[in-house]
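Example 203, ligand adenosine-5'-diphosphate.
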Amino acid sequence: MFISFEGIDGSGKSTQARLLADHLKNAGQEVVLTREPGGSSGAEEIRKLVLEGDTDRWSATTELLLFTAARRDHLERTIRPALADGKIVICDRFADSSRIYQGLGRAELGDLVDQLHALVIGQEPDLTLLIDMDPEKGLDRALSRNGTEERFEDFGVGMQLKMRQGFLDLAKRYSERFRIINGDQDIEAVQNDIRAVLDPMLA
Ligand code: ADP
Ligand code: TYD
């Protein structure tokens, strides 16, 4: 089973993905917890190229190609081998993040996101947990982390609002695999809602 977490920056994806991985391991499952961009050594190198340093050194199209290259490497080296071994893969962001972060801005890039996905990725998660929440709260959380990877968080609240709506639209377009989780609760309550989705599926 391939599970992805999606949502705006600071919505709690990494926190919840980690807690879910622990929960499933305790229940006796073999779990691979991974993330994008990254999740394999080559893809982690590409992560540094897109998230650190001078933000203007890539065009929007080049950046999309880098995210897609990272995803392809991640799929080849980490995700597919783990799924073939019968493990549960939990991924902090996947292709839906490209549909939002690269695809929302310009219509022509949105088409390219879909074309590239069909050409070189061609895989969707079995389940996508969308952690939905108020962007102002998400941004406060994300900025309070104070790391070096601030590129997308720098967009501000207006952009995050657009992205939140974009994710909700994707949840409608791919309703068979999306579940919307209310992220505006304490960490334990969010995790309980996630387990309420997963536990019956795995039983
Ligand atoms: P994301 O991976 O979606 O960017 P994180 O899981 O890294 O989000 O969380 C961002 C910050 O918010 C972290 O400092 C985390 O500890 C905190 N956080 C996560 N979930 C909650 C929550 N439900 N309530 C309050 N703070 C949270
Ligand atoms: P991530 O580490 O998940 O950031 P956060 O924890 O703040 O949510 O992802 C880093 C950034 O990369 C995030 O701002 C979204 C962006 N991103 C894309 O633009 N396209 C993609 O395809 C992916 C996977 C991520």
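Summary: The longest strand covers residues 127-132.
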